[in-house]
Design a protein that fits this description.
35% helix; Rossmann fold; 22 strands; 14 helices; six-stranded parallel beta sheet
Length: 405
């Protein structure tokens, strides 16, 4: 791979110290690294240490007379092949989402015309705050790639999601984004993932145990092979995949609308565990007990079948390859084979989600790929490896199509 230029914006969080190792990894990977420090970041990382490791000048001040005489913030933001923000603090993410440009870091991010990767890091409550979730959704809709955060013990003593991804994981995400080619380069794909939440009233909903891990892994694997991926996810616990455009939804109806808006694509992978039913008439207020001891009657109506709806479209709206997932608890292959025919999709990835399997919400999967040619059983693998196998098969499918034409 030819040498690439990385602009690393270091935010003001405790995790900033990890960026020294990140700089080392980036340089070891053959990249040029230019560092921009926020004022808060200087409390954790010195310009001297960042400059010594990067081998280049460290930028700190928007109003540097020498640099700005040459419109330095524009040049810095445009000369890079990729902009990496680590740690991406809650404040930096808010500035990016709202378009602020009141210091060097935020101005660089506003002025760049290159891809941006952020590695969020903050207290767990800050990460889970509605404002941060809104800002994250805005950034992902703008095409910003995200790596992490991880779950673990914080510097403040709390435990949960919010730890910055390790430097090796950030480096891997950088390599995926800078990959010069891949067998799916030029192909567009969409992946649905996670559960849907179907409101019963303003505080209760119908859902399932899907974590979204498998769908996120599929999206990341397709992006790693060069595909332009739209990742449509319900409320899932899995972090969003790097390299994909993320669209967040709540309900099955919202997911269908997002899928239709993303079409046409070359491949569509429906890994979401969409609720089959929704409340026919969800009241505007919380349902109260009436003292009788009798539960309220809940009237349900069927949700749209997103997989079948897309599979039965006609070209060019119908993707060239439609892949469904079948979560079964018994007679897995037989039920999934029937589902493929019933839904009209090209492939079905069947998996056993019975309680004994530990697949639903877990980190492994035992999948069977079912096509018109039959069933191909895969061994029990991590979900990332299962996703990689599926992505490779999808790439091989399109290579055969291209060879035939």
């Amino acid at each position: 791979m030819p040498q690439k230029s990385i602009l690393l914006v270091i935010g003001g969080g405790v995790a900033a110290y990890k960026c020294l190792e990140l700089i080392r990894l980036l340089r070891k990977g053959g990249n040029r690294v230019t560092v921009a420090l926020t004022r808060a970041a200087e409390q954790f990382v010195t310009p001297l240490s960042a400059g010594a490791l990067s081998g280049a000048k460290v930028y700190r001040d928007l109003f540097d007379l020498t640099d700005e005489a040459e419109m330095g913030h524009i040049q810095l933001s445009r000369a890079a092949d990729l902009v990496v923000v680590a740690p991406a603090t809650a404040d930096l993410m808010a500035k990016m989402a709202q378009g602020h440009a009141d210091d060097l870091a935020s101005t660089l991010l506003m002025a760049t015309d290159k891809r941006v990767l952020i590695a969020p890091a903050m207290n767990v409550r800050m990460w889970q705050h509605p404002a941060t979730r809104r800002n994250l959704a805005t950034l992902q809709a703008d095409g910003v790639a995200v790596v992490g955060p991880d779950a673990g013990e914080m510097a403040c003593g709390e435990f949960g999601p919010g730890r910055m991804a390790e430097p090796a994981a950030i480096m891997a995400a950088v390599e995926r984004l800078l990959a010069p080619s891949g067998p799916l380069r030029g192909r567009r794909a969409l992946v649905t993932s996670g559960p849907t939440h179907e409101p019963i009233d303003p505080v209760r909903y119908i859902a399932n145990r899907s974590s979204g891990k498998q769908g996120a892994a599929v999206a990341a694997a397709l992006a790693a092979l060069g595909a332009e991926v739209t990742f449509i996810t319900g409320p899932a616990s899995a972090p969003p995949p790097p390299g994909a455009r993320v669209v967040r939804v709540e309900t099955a109806l919202e997911m269908l609308a997002a899928v239709e808006a993303a079409l046409p694509v070359d491949a569509a992978v429906f890994a979401a565990a969409v609720a089959d039913w929704r409340a026919a008439d969800a009241p505007a207020q919380k349902i109260k007990k009436d003292g009788s001891g009798a539960p309220p009657a809940l009237s349900l109506k069927e949700n749209p079948d997103i997989l079948s709806t897309v599979a039965r479209l006609t070209p060019p709206r119908r993707p060239a390859l439609v892949v469904g997932f079948a979560a079964e608890t018994e007679n897995v292959v037989a039920h999934a084979t029937a589902k493929r025919l019933r839904k009209g999709c090209d492939w079905i990835v069947a998996n056993d989600v019975s309680p004994a399997s530990g697949v639903m919400g877990g980190d492994e999967n035992a999948a069977t790929l079912i096509t018109a040619d039959g069933a191909e059983g895969w061994p029990r693998l991590g979900k990332a490896e299962t996703a990689r196998r599926l992505a490779v098969r999808i790439a091989e499918h399109f290579s055969r199509i291209q060879a035939d034409t």
